[in-house]
Design brief:
It is a single chain. With about 120 residues, this protein is α+β, with helices and mostly antiparallel strands. Helices cover about 30% and strands about 30% of the residues. The chain has a four-stranded mixed β-sheet. Helix 1 packs across helix 2. The longest helix has 19 residues. The termini are far apart.
Amino acid sequence: MSEYDSHVSLSDSYLDDEDAFAEDGPDIIKVSARSRSTAVAGAIAGVMRQHHSAEVQAIGAGAVNQAVKALAIARGYLERDEMDIVTTPYFTEVDIDGQERTAVRFRVEPRPEKP
């Protein structure tokens, strides 16, 4: 069990700690199948409060499942701050150890206010 299995931060990743920000930058929250959805949700809420947008990335069905659960939980966390969020999923290609993989990435933004 690695250090990433028990908690999440912006460096929570399916990559080694040194590589977590290598090409993507620190703004992508990387989720593994073993990430705790509540911890990921806390990271999403924190980034949303600070930057008003976030990117969540997952590779594989288990990781996508954890990411979707975390997004739903984060929406509840942000409700307390009167911030509603919307999520746009899309595919992206990532290089892991020289191998190209398809990841699902979720762009998270505040819901536009109704006129």
